[in-house]
Design a protein that fits this description.
The chain is mainly α. Among the domains are: about 110 residues, no CATH class; about 150 residues, no CATH class; about 160 residues, Methane Monooxygenase Hydroxylase, Chain G, domain 1 (Up-down Bundle). Helices cover about 70% and strands about 0% of the residues. The chain contains 26 helices and no strands. It starts with a helix and ends with a helix.
């Protein structure tokens, strides 16, 4: 009976994954409704005025409509610039290669290489990518439309094909979409709620989930300035977000058996910060009883520095929120953004990535033109949108694209056979598009682990259903386009696994190396206040490493597995997260004059170890021996009984950090 119950209660990993990804969450239904509405409006308009390629117009909505109003506006602006630039360049290239087929392939290859290279190296990379993609696609149209006058007319229509969904989606999102300022506020309140529950012992902090949400909050806050100019006067917001990340990180170091009165004091201080953000209430004038000096003095050496550091961070958070409410943050400084990334012309990976994508794209073009099978032209389009930095990422996207395309193709085929023959007017088509768009949009609004499958479902559905300006009854077009998608994925997999294969595990090591270097810089410059970006840089590197390690599973059978891709890597990341939390505990301690020299020497030794570890990780070598904490231990042993809580905590914090480093060394051995 026990075995039977175990078998019946078994939860298959795939079903559990789908249940988690497809579950309703805040804002999902609204996003689905907006996408379905925009797709219906775009398709109805395209049918009414006979605008070509309605399938691609409807698909563009999925690129624009999944985010808030600010990101929709930003993507729309990039799209408008990219399509305008591509149209002008296409007209120029037509004058060169329309009558010279021998020039067409080199120009297409050069456009692909340049677009993919600039995608990785420029701040405006998405615009360059879109321009390069459209430039290549329009060059392939010469084979289908040999008449130059008709080709030019069709090219100008393509500008309308892109701009129609851009205008519709921007207007709908600006009128009914979520306001990024409100979303940022709700996200911050949710994080404070989760933190207060964890501090009060009601729940546990998930460092990965909460850190990811903090990073999203930082990006959301930055985007919100596009629509809310008043936010530009709150220059202290980045510091508040980094302080919140610090608190979430340090909460993972609190032992389960921490005194209830201390937990209640931390939770009370956190709730006061939440109230200050939610309704502008005044900051409490007194410290909660659980955080008073006599209570802190009674804590053990592993608890005291963490609690004191959290009290310090909570006080700074409360002061910052009060200053923000009173609009005393000052004018935000202007940050100049570099045109190219720092390693744009020194890192060979950028050139290799562009070259691999170019080879696969040219191969797709040669295959379908050589076979005289223009219906599988989607192979070329697939090569552009599947390309990722590592093989694991590419194969992950390949899996989602194939799975989504097959499901979407099945839905489109069933619609062609059973639904479209019964339609009589544009109203019937609008109802069908609204229903199919809603289904695909529900999948597309999942996390990055599944969202791309929804995008491919939508593309396959639209390509199958929207073949012309009347009901589609031919399955041949759908079949050809599905074959093209499969061909493009196969070509990308072969090229990325054979030529300079870039392992996700290798990129994960680089992310970990970046986290170690950021922690080293923090310890060496303890005077730096939150807001510099260093604290979030650590969280961003750890989250990136986790994602890359999970993608390493897709490389099995293609690349030699690396130790960083197995289960021990996840334990390593957990230990690194605790080291980051302990580092935050150290930098939150006040400076104690009599022991400043010993503290600085101890911090320098740990920072040197972190820097050496970063170098060894990037080279794939083992970590160096952990540093001794003898200086802090000797100073703590010599501390008089009447020493202040702050002095004792400052020394104990270094021992806590050394303990976490030793734990990582033990697990990594």
């Amino acid at each position: 009976m026990t075995a039977l119950a175990s078998a019946n209660g078994r939860q298959w990993p795939l079903l559990a994954f789908l249940r988690e990804e497809l579950a309703p969450h805040a804002g999902r239904l609204g996003a689905v409704a907006r996408i379905a509405t925009c797709c219906t409006i775009v398709v109805a308009t395209a049918m009414l005025y006979q605008i070509p390629e309605p399938a691609y117009s409807a698909y563009i909505v999925f690129f624009l409509g999944r985010g808030d109003a600010a990101i929709t506006l930003r993507i729309a602006m990039a799209g408008a610039i990219g399509v305008t630039l591509a149209t002008l360049l296409s007209l120029l290239l037509y004058s060169l290669d329309a009558g010279e087929p021998a020039l067409r392939l080199p120009l297409m290859a050069a456009s692909t290489f340049l677009g993919m290279f600039l995608l990785r190296t420029m701040a405006i990379g998405p615009i360059a990518f879109l321009a390069g993609f459209l430039l290549v696609v329009t060059q392939t149209l010469i084979d289908v439309i040999p008449n130059l006058e008709a080709l030019t007319r069709f090219l100008l229509w393509l500008w309308v094909v892109v701009m129609l969904p851009v205008v519709v989606t921007v207007l709908v999102n600006l009128l009914t979409g979520p306001n990024p300022t409100q979303l940022a506020r709700q996200s911050a309140l949710h994080l404070l709620d989760a933190l207060s529950d964890a501090l009060g012992g009601k729940a546990r902090i998930s460092l990965l989930r909460e850190s990811t949400e903090v990073l999203e909050l930082a990006e959301l806050r930055q985007r919100a300035e596009l629509l809310d100019r008043n936010l530009r006067s709150h220059s202290g917001d980045p510091a508040l977000i980094e302080t919140l990340q610090e608190l979430i990180s340090m909460a993972t170091l609190l032992p389960p058996n921490l005194a209830p009165v201390v937990r209640a004091g931390l939770a009370e201080a956190c709730l006061a910060c939440r109230a200050a953000l939610a309704d502008g209430s005044e900051r409490p004038s007194s410290t909660p009883v659980g955080l008073a000096e006599p209570v802190l003095a009674g804590l053990n050496p592993l608890e005291r520095p963490v609690v004191l550091a959290m009290r310090q961070a909570l006080e700074r958070l409360a002061i910052g929120l009060q200053a923000r409410r009173d609009s005393r943050s000052g004018k935000a400084p202007k940050h100049e953004t570099a045109l190219f990334v720092p390693d744009a012309f020194s890192n060979p990976e950028h050139v290799r990535f562009a070259l691999k994508t170019t080879i696969a794209t040219v191969a797709a073009y040669v295959i379908y033109t050589g076979a005289d099978w223009p219906g599988i032209r989607t192979a070329l389009i697939t090569c552009f949108f599947v390309a990722q930095g590592t093989l694991g990422e590419t194969l992950h996207k390949l899996t989602l694209r194939l799975g989504g395309a097959l499901i979407g193709g099945l839905i489109g085929g069933l619609s062609i056979v059973y639904v479209l023959p019964a339609m009589t007017d544009i109203g019937d088509l609008s109802l069908l598009i609204a229903a199919l768009s809603a289904v695909c949009a529900w999948v597309a609004t999942s996390s990055e682990r599944l969202a791309y499958a929804g995008m491919q479902m939508a593309l396959a559905v639209f390509l199958g259903v929207l073949q012309g300006y009347g009901p589609s009854t031919d399955l041949t077009v759908l079949r050809d386009r599905m074959v093209g998608i499969v061909l493009g994925n196969v070509l990308m997999s072969l090229v990325f696994s054979i030529l300079w294969p870039s392992s996700a595990a290798t990129q994960a090591r680089k992310s970990l190396s970046s986290a170690f270097r950021a922690l080293s810089a923090l310890l060496l410059d303890r005077g730096s206040q939150p807001g510099s970006g260093r604290r979030l840089a650590v969280a961003r590197a750890v989250v990136s490493a986790r994602n890359l390690i999970s993608l390493g599973a897709f490389e099995t059978g293609f690349l030699v597995p690396h130790p960083a891709s197995d289960a021990t890597a996840r334990s390593f990341l957990d230990d690194l997260g605790r080291i980051a939390a302990a580092s935050a505990v150290v930098i939150e301690q006040p400076g104690i004059a009599p022991y400043r020299e010993a503290l600085e020497a101890q911090d320098k030794a740990i920072a040197t170890w972190l820097s050496d570890s970063a170098d060894r990780l990037s080279e794939g070598r083992t970590l160096p021996p952990s540093p001794e904490a003898q200086l802090a231990a000797d100073a703590l042993a010599a501390l008089p009984p009447a020493a202040s809580v702050e002095a004792r905590s400052a020394l104990e914090a270094r021992l806590v950090l050394a303990l976490q480093i030793h734990r990582l060394e033990t697990h990594a051995a």
